[in-house]
Design goal:
- The protein is 71% helix and 3% strand.
- The chain contains 11 helices and 4 strands; from the N terminus they run ααααβββααααβααα.
- The chain has helices at residues 2-31, 38-54, 60-83, 92-114, 141-163, 165-175, 177-182, 187-212, 222-235, 240-260, 266-280, and strands at 119-120, 130-132, 137-139, 215-216.
């Protein structure tokens, strides 16, 4: 049963990566920007949820909602102050440097407020583990909730993009910002909404990640954020189903790499996958070749 257990754990970890990757892929698909501070929004969301539960005494669901609201405001603020002034005037390098600066800022703010010591995270999941095959296979409540949340969120997000006016505005901005503006679409507001949704999803991902792996530091979001970016590229950055597929595949690869190859080599294997994908299919699994008009 160990193989099945590893597979389930891989899907669970991959579901967290997928939720984070959705934020990357939405922002890139619509604003054509890479928000490398996204991983640190995950960490902030986890700290807000932990503080709401242990400090304010809120129930887990209310703590998650508080984290989502806080991260939504944080995401919109980051977009307004850091990214919007650079969107039309600056090079991709300037945007990248700004994103790294925002990332370090969030980490240091967390260090000042919460300290460098590792905190034990209280799981928000109350679902009891499920025992299968006579107790040989045990699936934790965190695993079940994480996988279910990933599937539900991906379906809801896909329907939102395809069926709502805000979603149609996002698609129009993704295709051509200038034409979308001429059609009366508020481009700045649409991109801000994209950051808001991505940041809210980051809060959920942070809470689920720390519920499954119950430790929290100011650097908790760094490596998952980078791996989620790899997942977004793997699946085809800009594609919502691609982000989910890439995240789950990457989680499975990481868990099996730790189990059957080497714990120390697991991260290297993940990044090796990115290199192979970029060589074989630069656009990712579900990515599309886009011809730039000149």
């Amino acid at each position: 049963m160990s193989f099945i257990s590893y597979l389930i754990n891989g899907i669970s970890l991959g579901s967290v990566y997928a939720l984070i990757a959705l934020g990357y892929t939405m922002v890139y698909g619509i604003a054509k920007m890479l928000n490398f501070a996204h991983g640190d929004v995950i960490m902030i969301g986890a700290y807000v949820a932990l503080t709401a539960m242990t400090g304010a005494g809120l129930p887990p669901l209310a703590a998650v909602l508080a984290a989502m609201v806080f991260c939504t405001v944080l995401g919109v603020t980051i977009e307004r102050i850091a990214y919007r002034p650079l969107r039309n005037a600056a090079s991709s390098l300037a945007v990248l440097i700004t994103a790294i600066g925002v990332s370090y800022l969030l980490q240091n703010v967390a260090l000042l407020i919460f300290g460098a010591n590792t905190k034990s995270f209280t799981s928000v999941v109350s679902l009891k583990p499920i025992s299968l095959a006579g107790g040989k296979l045990i699936i934790s409540g965190e695993t079940i909730v994480t996988i279910a949340c990933c599937i539900i969120i991906m379906i809801a997000l896909t329907l939102f993009i395809k069926k709502t006016k805000a979603g149609q505005a996002m698609r129009a901005v993704s295709e051509d910002k200038g034409a979308a503006q001429l059609m009366g679409i508020n481009v700045n507001g649409t991109i801000a909404l994209t950051f808001a949704i991505g940041s809210a999803l980051a809060a959920i991902a942070g809470v689920l990640l720390c519920s499954a792996y119950p430790t929290l530091t100011p650097y908790t979001g760094s490596m998952p954020g980078i791996k989620a970016f790899v997942a977004a590229v793997f699946g085809g950055i800009g594609s919502i189903p691609g982000a989910m597929i890439g995240g789950i595949l990457l989680g499975i690869i990481e868990i099996f790499g730790k189990a059957y190859i080497s714990t120390q080599m697991a991260d290297a294997i993940v990044f090796a996958v990115l290199i192979v994908v970029l060589i074989v299919k630069p656009t990712g699994i579900l990515g599309k070749n886009i011809q730039e008009k000149v």
